[in-house]
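Hey, I was hoping to borrow your eyes for a little while. No rush at all, and the record is pasted right below.
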Amino acid sequence: MDAKVIEARLNKLQADTPAQFGIMTSQHMVEHLTVTVKISYNRIKIPEFELTEKQKFQKTALLDSSMEFPKGIKAPEMNAGELMPLRNLNLNEAKEQLLSSLNSYNMFFDKDPTATTVHPRFSNLTFAEWERFHPKHFKHHFEQFGIWE
């Protein structure tokens, strides 16, 4: 993932930028992306699990096609549609955390390109699979706040 491209898009995001869909605030969205990136390089570990047939289908549909992230999908950490408490003091701090996490993600897979890490819906993913997942995930959320382009 190209942190420079992500940073340029994040620079367009303000604390009061309204979501075009969903319930997240801009800071919630950035912190959600940070958690996902941290999961992808094992900074946050998810226990391994076997995929159900439905999960296998969803994984293939999302990662092995041009399918976009569906609007309205709930993040695994959202209980009963509630947002997680904010972890950072403000949006700028959250942006810095995300960019730092992207750097750590790239270093992790530079050191071990054959590593697999556990995704909360799709179980073990390779670097190549994360590289297909993250851009779709970022695009989905950046479109949510009108900062994709």
Notes: The chain has a mean pLDDT of 94. The first strand starts at residue 116 and ends at 119.
